[in-house]
Amino acid sequence: MAVVGSKSFISDLHSKYAEKTWNETFKLVRRCMDKSRGDTKPCEPLIRCLKILHEALNVSSLSAMVSRLEIMAKQRGMGSHLSPTETTCYLTADMFYLEVLLLPGGEVEDVKLAQHGEAPVSSESLLQLLKSKKFEEFSVKLKGLSSLYNIPGDNETKIKVYTALQFLGKDLQKISHLPRALRECNLQVDMILNGRIGYLTAGSEGIPMTIQYYISPSDILLEMSDSERGSIGQLALVTVGPSDSTHRLQMASVIPQPPQLDAQGLPLFSPLCEVLSEMMPACFQLKLQPPLPMLSSFVEKLSQITDVAIADADLQWAPFPQLMMTLLGENGGKKTWDGQDAHFLVVSFHHFDTPVFSIQPLPGKEIHSYVLPGAAWEEAALRGTLMSTIPFTHPAHVPALLELLRHQCAINTLLASCITSLRPSPGPVCDLYCEVLPESGSSLSVTFHLSDSDSLSVLLVNVADSRKLTCSLFAVGSESMDEYVSRVLKRCMSIPVTMRALNRRLSKRTCGEPLPACSATISTADVSPASPLPMSCEADGSLSSGSGLESIGIPTTSSTAAVFSQDAMGTDTTATAAESAFCLSVAEVNTNPTANPYPCASVCVYSQWMHNNHLPELI
Questions:
Q1: The Cα angle at residue 152 between residues 147 and 158, in degrees rounded to 5
Q2: Comparing C-alpha atoms, which of 420, 415, 451 is closest to residue 346?
Q3: Helices 495-510/561-568 angle, 10° precision
Q4: I need a surface site. Which of 27, 238, 486, 553 has the fewest CB within 10 A?
Q5: What distance in Å separates the CA atoms of residue 440 and residue 461, rounded to the nearest whole number?
Q6: What does the H/E/C string look like for 369-419?
Q7: Cα 225-229-230 angle, rounded to 5 deg
Q8: C-alpha gyration radius of the chain
């Protein structure tokens, strides 16, 4: 009976509104939305209903465009109203508003954005979105603008927080423009890898200030080969967010003019107690995109730099390889790290666009097997978490934070080069079997077995920071190749590519072939950690190719850049039980713990720094 009654009710509604126009239906829904309710939050079912109605129809009139703008404003918690002349639709929020200038036929003539305290400025990107009727993308832009002021409190508090963020951005730009020596021939790559503030892009139209702070050699080649990909690598958005406790934030610049520099080329900052500042329930934030897997020891250093505690409840700890596999999408269907040995295969191809349909070895190609022992990576000290937001309170924190993030990125890049979606299967025979063991938070060892040798060899890799990577080879009867291997590793930032070069060199030794001097095999110029091509900067600024690099699979011309890129991004799989017998742990290989390279004091001792006329060293 209830079903029959429902059908009758729906039939009555159909018959009642069958003759109604769409405009009348829109007006009815809007009247329902504007009715007084117990709370101020818009009725979500009605908003969804109106949104579906709008999407079903073309926006081809002034009233239809106004209706569409109104519903997008309500979705984002904004107000809206039409000017008396019905030529401008205003979308308003506490800290900004938009002016949408309309033509009689509903076309959009201009879109102006006015942020707090600023005059309206025409926005070409917002205009094109509305002209193209890309309403979903326009709504996302509104959400981005609203998120810039996601601070609890009244308008006065939000204005103060916004002002603090503006002065932070200006000081970061000042630091970024300070003179420094170049290390890379590519200026943008040099800013990313070595700049005190990375490669900085000013914020606009709902997009916060962006810092590109790390890029791997393979990403550099991808960016060079596809200019339409946009920025790749590791990014950090400079934003502000609410905090459970109050923090003193700047309300003016803390860099005196002209700036005075310390021995590291960083400015001497004015103490916050001597410049305009306010206690606020907020703090600045670096929002990492994508989230960065960080070891627990590195997470502790974040708080040491900023003096802002990171709530442990916000962190989800897991074995570090699990985090890397999750981020790379190489979990192979496993939801969790089961503590067992993880096996991967890395296939080396000679062409960038060669599809990996099979792991059968081809002439001149190599297959490596890499094993990450579960027990070794399960230690508590090697657990990590995916960091997405880093709170801080002062521009002096940013250079030190970026150096710490780059350090972690260098470790992650090396480990990621051994993790792929390929797993061992019966049939293929690997050219090299390797076991990757953690030796400390910033060093690892690669134990391997050469087919023509009865003994194991160990390559010890120490990552002191993102620019200082050193290798030590422990192999029976081998001449010193530490410098050679270190330069190869810094050039490609890939363990498989480095192991291929080392394997070929050791194989030549056992065959009695003459070996070129290390300085002739790798360019005599100091090799940077992530130059896009194996070139070195001469004194006159010209480029010179390293000699002999082709022999280890690293190209020396842009036409062969694809070879290096594919090698650096080769895919891995696992060894079988018989194969893993070759990958034995060498427990006696240890390294001394590296001293903390981030001795950055907290803001509360700025006055002491000023008294001593220097800042603590920011590595």
A1: 70
A2: 420
A3: 100
A4: 27
A5: 10
A6: EEEECHHHHCCHHHEEEEEEEEEECCCCHHHHHHHHHHHHHHHHHHHHCCC
A7: 115
A8: 29
Q: Which tokens belong to 41?
A: 């939050």
Does the CA dihedral 14-16-21-27 come out positive or negative? negative
Assigned token pair, 89? 């639709």
- Within 8 A by CB and 6+ apart from 586, the residues are 437, 445, 447, 456, 458, 474
Locate tokens 């970061």: which residue? 172
Instruction: Give dist(CA 377, CA 81) in Å, integer.
Output: 59
| CA torsion angle 517 456 507 361 (round to 10) | -130
Outline where DSSP puts E strands in 103-169: 108-115, 121-122
Question: Would you tell me the crossing angle of helices 397-416 and 296-306 to the nearest 10 degrees?
Answer: 170
Enumerate the β-bridge partners of residue 280: 247
Domain boundaries, the chain: 24-147, 155-333+376-408+599-612, 411-580
Read off the pLDDT of residues 81-139 as tens digits, 9 standing for 90 and up: 999 998 999 999 888 899 999 998 889 999 999 887 788 989 998 999 999 989 989 99
pTM of the predicted structure, to 2 decimals:
0.72
What DSSP character marks residue 352? Answer: T
Q: CA–CA distance from 567 to each of 75, 217, 325, 412 (Å)?
A: 48, 11, 19, 17
DSSP state of 319: E
Q: Supply angle C-alpha 329, 334, 340, rounded to 5.
A: 115
Q: Tokens at residue 49, please?
A: 């209903």
Calculate the CA dihedral of residues 573, 575, 576, 582 and round it to 10 degrees.
Answer: 180
For 543-573, the pLDDT digits (tens) are 333 333 333 333 333 332 333 333 333 333 3
Omega of the bond leading into 290 within 30 degrees of 0 (cis): yes
CA 610-613-617 angle, 5° bins: 95
Strand, coil or helix: 77: coil
**In contact, 51 and 29? CB cutoff 8 Å:** no
Residues 252, 597: Cα–Cα separation, whole Å: 30
DSSP state of 250: E
